[in-house]
Design a protein that fits this description.
Blueprint (H helix, E strand, L loop, with lengths): L3 E6 L4 E6 L2 E11 L2 E9 L8 H16 L3 E4 L2 H8 L12
Parallel strand pairs: 4-5
Antiparallel strand pairs: 1-2, 2-3, 3-4
């Protein structure tokens, strides 16, 4: 599969994954008091099984880390499990 690029779309409160210029998936979030809460992640059926979801979460969290100002709350089950399997991203999460 081609490179997957992820961009923040603050107008729609979501990170969007693109493959060859086509929207392949998104991860919705809500911002409040220094916390970014990931609420829902979807990958288009045409891109399922090609690593789009993982790339979407990884690149989204990388952008959050670069901001240096937000803590992550993983309300979305996909994001929560992804973080559980990638300990190097667990420092971004808020204690429950």
């Amino acid at each position: 599969m081609s490179d997957i690029s992820v961009r923040d779309n603050p107008a729609d409160n979501r990170f969007e994954a693109f493959v060859d210029g086509k929207l392949a998936g998104f991860s919705a979030y809500a911002l409040s008091d220094g916390v970014i809460a990931f609420t829902h992640t979807e990958v288009d059926d045409a891109f399922e099984g090609h690593g789009v979801g993982s790339a979407l979460v990884r690149q989204s969290l990388d952008q959050v880390r670069e901001s240096g100002t937000l803590q992550v709350k993983a309300l979305c089950p996909f994001v929560r499990v992804w973080i559980e399997h990638h300990p190097d991203y667990q420092d971004l999460t808020r204690p429950r």
